[in-house]
Amino acid sequence: MAGNSFGQLFRITTFGESHGPAIGVVIDGCPAGLVFDQAFIQLQLSRRRPGQSALTTQRDESDQLELLSGVFEGRTTGTPITLLIRNKDAQSGDYDALKDVYRPSHADYTYEAKYGIRDHRGGGRSSARETAARVAAGGLAQLLLHASGIRVVAYVCGVGSVTYIDEPTQKALLSIENNAVRCPDTTTAARMEAAIAEAKAHGDSLGGMIRVLITGVPAGLGEPVFDKLEADLAKAMLSINAVKGFEVGAGFAAAMAKGSEMNDSFYTDSGRVRTRTNHSGGIQGGISNGETISCRIAFKPVATIQQKQNSIDKAGKSITLEAKGRHDPCVVPRAVPIVEAMAALVLADHLLRQRSAIL
Amino acid sequence: MAGNSFGQLFRITTFGESHGPAIGVVIDGCPAGLVFDQAFIQLQLSRRRPGQSALTTQRDESDQLELLSGVFEGRTTGTPITLLIRNKDAQSGDYDALKDVYRPSHADYTYEAKYGIRDHRGGGRSSARETAARVAAGGLAQLLLHASGIRVVAYVCGVGSVTYIDEPTQKALLSIENNAVRCPDTTTAARMEAAIAEAKAHGDSLGGMIRVLITGVPAGLGEPVFDKLEADLAKAMLSINAVKGFEVGAGFAAAMAKGSEMNDSFYTDSGRVRTRTNHSGGIQGGISNGETISCRIAFKPVATIQQKQNSIDKAGKSITLEAKGRHDPCVVPRAVPIVEAMAALVLADHLLRQRSAIL
Amino acid sequence: MAGNSFGQLFRITTFGESHGPAIGVVIDGCPAGLVFDQAFIQLQLSRRRPGQSALTTQRDESDQLELLSGVFEGRTTGTPITLLIRNKDAQSGDYDALKDVYRPSHADYTYEAKYGIRDHRGGGRSSARETAARVAAGGLAQLLLHASGIRVVAYVCGVGSVTYIDEPTQKALLSIENNAVRCPDTTTAARMEAAIAEAKAHGDSLGGMIRVLITGVPAGLGEPVFDKLEADLAKAMLSINAVKGFEVGAGFAAAMAKGSEMNDSFYTDSGRVRTRTNHSGGIQGGISNGETISCRIAFKPVATIQQKQNSIDKAGKSITLEAKGRHDPCVVPRAVPIVEAMAALVLADHLLRQRSAIL
Amino acid sequence: MAGNSFGQLFRITTFGESHGPAIGVVIDGCPAGLVFDQAFIQLQLSRRRPGQSALTTQRDESDQLELLSGVFEGRTTGTPITLLIRNKDAQSGDYDALKDVYRPSHADYTYEAKYGIRDHRGGGRSSARETAARVAAGGLAQLLLHASGIRVVAYVCGVGSVTYIDEPTQKALLSIENNAVRCPDTTTAARMEAAIAEAKAHGDSLGGMIRVLITGVPAGLGEPVFDKLEADLAKAMLSINAVKGFEVGAGFAAAMAKGSEMNDSFYTDSGRVRTRTNHSGGIQGGISNGETISCRIAFKPVATIQQKQNSIDKAGKSITLEAKGRHDPCVVPRAVPIVEAMAALVLADHLLRQRSAIL
Question: For B298, which of A208, A247, A286 is closest by C-beta distance?
Answer without folding.
Answer: A247
